[in-house]
Recover the amino acids of this structure.
């Protein structure tokens, strides 16, 4: 997707060539997301030391990090290298994965508020998918809360083989939903609303249902309801193999293939990219519910899943987001991309981080979770995030 928000960046390429110290390279645009260090010197030094320690521990290529309080930067920094000879910078774009579900929930609630006759949280899924197994028993809200129990397409072995065989393929929502039923997959459970299991399928269905209900493409809804109001000029839905530049390069886990220019459309509406500045703006907007009417804000963190599956009062899945009281959290990881966000409404602290692996990184690590836990312990020692 090439839209007006991309044109601004690309037309400033010449300026980047003139001002950059490292010289003009092919994936460079003019930076407007600069490093910042406005917190107390001892605090920013402790954060930097912690980040560097975790980077060295897991032999990461790069970390791009931001800590803010009430919209004001405490520290915004990039450590390490994007790729050989190219340092990581704070203006680089990266995949945000499951953070995209938070965007989806905000679009959903705004559309349901504007047009409840077209789509409501209490509507049965069978309104749009009458032939889908158990759709008459599941509601829109259950899809958003991952309590519908529909088959999880993304874990189907045949599907994983398809994605691995052609990582440049563009996947449609219909194709993904088709791989959540037989012969590809079976339901997670057959009693919608009475159990819980994280489900990409439910989120994919939601976006497709929003398109049908509104008569607009999801990308248009995203622009109109979130990106334009918040002036997020470096965030977009990427259904192609052309990432926004400059881009943080990524290597897949264990095999260390360069996945930077692969097509992330297999995660559907979560195939979003951003930079650390836009991500900080979004994290605060979502955490405060600034785009939603007061009556709708509580829907995001309502504890309706508590008691289902692994959900407890201390940590549960809300609508497209994780609640670890008092924090609102999301984690994303695929193809060697690790991105996490956390917002604490009691202090206004916002944390956002992405990392990239090196060929020496150990397997099965969760570096961004470790970073959030360590930095929250520094900034909010009374209620740090668990790792």
């Amino acid at each position: 997707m090439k839209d007006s928000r991309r044109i601004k960046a690309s037309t400033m390429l010449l300026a980047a060539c003139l001002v950059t110290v490292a010289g003009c390279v092919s994936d460079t645009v003019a930076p407007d997301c600069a490093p910042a260090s406005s917190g107390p010197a001892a605090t920013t030094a402790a954060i930097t030391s912690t980040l560097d320690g975790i980077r060295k521990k897991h032999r990461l290529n790069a970390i791009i990090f931001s800590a803010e309080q009430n919209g004001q930067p405490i520290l915004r920094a990039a450590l390490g290298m994007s790729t050989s000879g190219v340092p990581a910078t704070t203006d680089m774009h990266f995949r945000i994965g499951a953070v995209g579900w938070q965007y989806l929930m905000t679009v959903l609630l705004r559309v349901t508020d504007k047009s409840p006759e077209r789509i409501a949280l209490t509507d049965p899924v069978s309104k749009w998918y009458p032939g889908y197994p158990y759709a008459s028993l599941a509601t829109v809200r259950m899809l958003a809360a991952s309590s519908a129990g529909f088959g999880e397409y993304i874990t189907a072995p045949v599907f994983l083989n398809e994605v691995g065989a052609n990582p440049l393929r563009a996947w449609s929502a219909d194709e993904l939903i088709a791989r959540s039923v037989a012969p590809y997959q079976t339901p997670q459970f057959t009693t919608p609303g009475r159990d819980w299991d994280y489900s990409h399928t439910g989120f994919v269905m939601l976006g497709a249902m929003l398109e049908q209900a509104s008569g607009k493409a999801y990308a248009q809804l995203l622009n109109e309801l979130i990106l334009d109001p918040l002036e997020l000029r470096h965030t977009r839905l990427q259904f192609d193999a052309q990432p926004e530049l400059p881009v943080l390069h990524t290597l897949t886990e264990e095999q260390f293939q360069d996945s930077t220019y692969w097509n992330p459309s297999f995660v559907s509406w979560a195939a979003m990219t951003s930079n650390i500045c836009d991500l900080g703006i979004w994290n605060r907007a979502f955490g405060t519910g600034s785009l939603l009417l007061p009556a709708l804000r509580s829907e995001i963190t309502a504890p309706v899943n508590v008691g289902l599956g692994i959900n407890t009062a201390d940590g549960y899945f809300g609508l497209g987001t994780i609640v670890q009281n008092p924090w609102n959290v999301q984690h994303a990881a695929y193809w060697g991309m690790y991105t996490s966000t956390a917002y604490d409404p009691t202090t206004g602290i916002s944390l956002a981080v992405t990392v990239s692996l090196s060929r020496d990184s150990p397997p099965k690590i969760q570096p961004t979770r470790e970073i959030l836990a360590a930095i929250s312990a520094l900034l909010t020692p009374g209620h740090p995030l668990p790792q």
